[in-house]
Amino acid sequence: MIPMKHSSIFKSRWMALIWAAGIIWFALDIAAPSATAGEPTDVTGAPVTSDDAAKIADIINGI
User: Would you state the torsion angle of the CA atoms of residues 49, 51, 63, 41, taken in this order, to the nearest 10 degrees?
Assistant: First the structure.
């Protein structure tokens, strides 16, 4: 996973900081929400309208 020897990473403070920054960058890239995370979509990726959301809420409340 790391393209260098593990023992040589922490011999230099600067190399350790660069390595740690890369780990944090990777974690944020994977875990950060996407730009469209707040917009609900259906299975096809089309945006859900308020009418569709109301129908779904009525079905769920009727269960």
Answer: -10
pLDDT given at position 55: 86
- Tokens 């995370």: give the residue: 37
pLDDT in tens, 2-26: 566 667 777 888 888 888 999 999 9
25, 17 Cβ separation under 8 angstroms: no
Query: What's the N-to-C CA distance of the chain in angstroms?
Result: 49
| DSSP per-residue string spanning 1-63 | --SS-HHHHTTSHHHHHHHHHHHHHHHHHHHSPPTTTTS-B-TTSPBPPHHHHHHHHHHHHT-
Question: Does the pLDDT of residue 54 top 60, yes or no?
Answer: yes
